[in-house]
Amino acid sequence: MKKKTFLFLRIIVAIILIQTLRFKFTGHTDSIYIFEKVGLEPYGRIGIGLLELISGILILIPKTIWLGALLTMGIIGGAIMMHLTMLGIEVNNDGGILFLTAVVTFILAAIILYNVKKDIPFLK
Known about the structure:
The chain crosses the membrane at residues 7-23, 43-61, 68-89, 95-116. Pfam families: DoxX. The chain is elongated, with a radius of gyration of 15 Å. The protein is mostly helical and 124 residues long. It has one domain (3-119). It has helices spanning 3-19, 21-26, 29-37, 43-58, 65-87, 97-115.
């Protein structure tokens, strides 16, 4: 994959992860609703927000891209499962945009991880 394209994908994932933090950290009503529904309010909301911040930073640092992508896949994989099992595809009449964003983020993180698989220390 071209370096510019790869960097672009990493930036997109980081932006998606980091832009959602304002909802989690400010206690937006939609964020509180989601985490109450899955039984993780408030500690899960803040904790997952911190993990998303960390993964968004790690995915931008060349030596930790693999860790950021792996962490992103774990976090977003959990979000996708919550949508499929507890929340539903559409949350608070959002038209499914949260679910779609999670799926896109997961796929992009998987592409990123695949492209840096040679850098994963425990696979060497």
